Amino acid sequence: MTAIDTNILFYAHDRSDERKMRSATSVIESLDDGVLLWQVACEYLWASRKLESQSYSYSDALEDVQELRSGWDTILPMWGVLGRIPALRSRGFSHWDALLIGTCLESGVQRLISEDFRETKLVDVLEIVNPFEAVAGEN
Question: Which end of the chain, N or C, is more open, meaning fewer C-beta atoms within 10 Å of its C-beta?
Fold first, then answer.
């Protein structure tokens, strides 16, 4: 299973950076094992307000989340995730990043696609992939 972070979903709708938009959209569309994390859906709905200047509304964001839900499984955080947070925080992750990573680990997600965690490529068995690393080198 592969999960996407909020930033990937955000960039898929952010027209201010065409390269990131194309890359994020391609990632989302290519996932045949994609899962939508509850936290990501909630964060995205909140973050989408930053796209209002691009005529992208909360209703548009909600529709996109519903579309992902129709094709992907949704993963809700389980209580066991809370037990993982202290160890992840001791490794330098923020509370919210620890919650995201803990949910992935607890749910059997093998890969998280995110712009964050630039220095971290693996957390236990969770591979973290930044789809923009190759994009950053292009001009």
Answer: C
According to the model, what pLDDT value does residue 131 have?
A: 87
134: three-class secondary structure by DSSP:
helix
Phi, psi of 24 (to 5 degrees): -65, -40
Amino acid at 135: V
- Sequential DSSP letters for 69-133: HHHSEEEPPPTHHHHHHHHHHHTT--HHHHHHHHHHHHHT--EEE-SS-TT-SEETTEEEE-TTH
Q: Specify the pLDDT at position 134.
A: 60
Q: What is the DSSP letter of 54?
A: G
How many angstroms separate the Cα of 57 from the Cα of each of 47, 50, 51? 11, 9, 7
Tell me the fold of 2-133: Rossmann fold (3.40.50)
pTM of structure: 0.85
Q: How many CB atoms lie within 10 A of CB 98?
A: 22
- Write the pLDDT tens digit of every residue in 46-96: 999 898 898 888 999 999 999 999 999 999 988 988 999 999 999 989 999
